Amino acid sequence: MDFWQHCGYHLLERATDGHLIVTDDYLRLYFSRPELAPVAESCMAERSLHQSLLDTPRRPVSANDLEQLADPDARENYRVMLRFREQLLAAGTLERFYARLFRSDVAVPPDFIHHTAEVILRGLLDCDGNGLRARAAEVFFRTQRVTVKDGAVMLADAETVNLHAEDGGLGNLGRMLMQVNAPLRSAEFDVLDQDSHEEYFRRDGRRDTVLQINPGLPGSLAICAMLERWVGHFHGLKVRVQPIREIPDEEWLWHVGLDVEASAMLNDIYAGTEVDENRMRRVIGLFRMDFDDPNALRPEMQGAPVFLGLAMTTDGVLRMKPQNLLMNLPLARRT
Fold first, then answer.
1. pLDDT tens digit string along 164-205?
2. Residue 196 sits in the same domain as residue 241
């Protein structure tokens, strides 16, 4: 089952540990981006540089080469892309590059960061024919529009909703997702479940399927599965993640917010700060993570769970930060 065909996953090679090795063809994917494509006004030096990088994606490019470009915007675009290339090549694998990003102050365009997460997740889903898990993986790198109605917590791709809801392109569901309190109406076809999950692979490029993530439902369990794979892939640890409805005070020793909103809210609650009811309602997912090997955690955490949270913004948006699981788990050693 193939999907996300334009992300470049098939241009990469795998290391023995399953991590993804940067190749010339993957670099060509970036040098073919619209930001670098010559336009009618492009000078000969810009055209020559672009073609040479398509021919030899690892070729050295000097400061003088860039100064030959007449367009200052083109010069800056190449500086950004070449800095990104050097970081990729220095890391060797996408996983090492991604992990290093959050331990340094090197600027990388957000689109490049999200795309890297997408390709890594595509690798984690290789040979997996479950559309619910593939849709859950999108939450890791694409902004979601959240709607909560009659207790149902639904996630839809924010960009798709914004593009099509006004003109009716998504029908009743699209309009409902633009107005959080509007009724769901007849949108069942677009909400993935166990019976319809294969529908995802027929429309993955459209980004127009919806995930319901209430605890215990298939969408929530799919998110749990992807959290397990993400942690296992980066940290080499076996974990079990399950959705929960609340965090027991007696077990709450450590938490990780999976987005900015959840991080701030969980920090406040843990510190004993009063959190009003309206803010609490923005929590859309709580999870418990248990580690098979207790020695993987710091001594004071051994045998204890780590609690995870997802929360939407005041305008009903979820922007997940999966890198928090690379940086903020209480591990005995840093991978």
1. 665 555 455 555 555 544 433 333 338 999 999 999 999 999
2. no
Which H/E stretch holds residue 233?
helix 218-235
Residues 180 and 266 in one domain: no
In a domain, 335, yes or no: no
Which two tokens mark 75? Answer: 């010069």
Return the residue matching tokens 């209430």. Answer: 214
The residues near 85 (Cβ < 8 Å, ≥ 6 apart) are 27, 30, 57, 58
Sequence letter at residue 274: E
Distance of CA 83 to the CA centre of its chain: 22
Per DSSP (E only), the strands in the chain are: 13-14, 20-21, 144-149, 152-157, 211-212, 239-244, 255-257, 283-291, 306-311, 317-318
CA 12, 226, 234 angle in degrees (round to 5)? 55
Packing angle of the helix pair 110-124, 131-138 (nearest 10 deg): 160
Which of 91, 126, 97, 141 lies closest to 9 in space, CA to CA? 126
Enumerate residues 6+ apart whose C-beta is below 8 A from 280. 265
Last residue of a domain, one of 186, 212, 238: 212
Q: State both tokens at 155.
A: 């996630």
Which residues are bridge partners to 241 per DSSP? Answer: 289
On whether both 140 and 247 belong to a single domain, the answer is: no
Do the beta carbons of residue 29 and residue 84 sit within 8 Å?
no
- Summarised one tens digit per residue, pLDDT across range 71-102 is 999 999 999 999 999 999 999 999 999 999 99
Beta bridge partners of residue 239, listed in sequence order? 291
- Tell which of 212, 227, 245 closes a domain: 212
Which segments in the chain show pLDDT lower than 70?
105-106, 164-189, 334-335
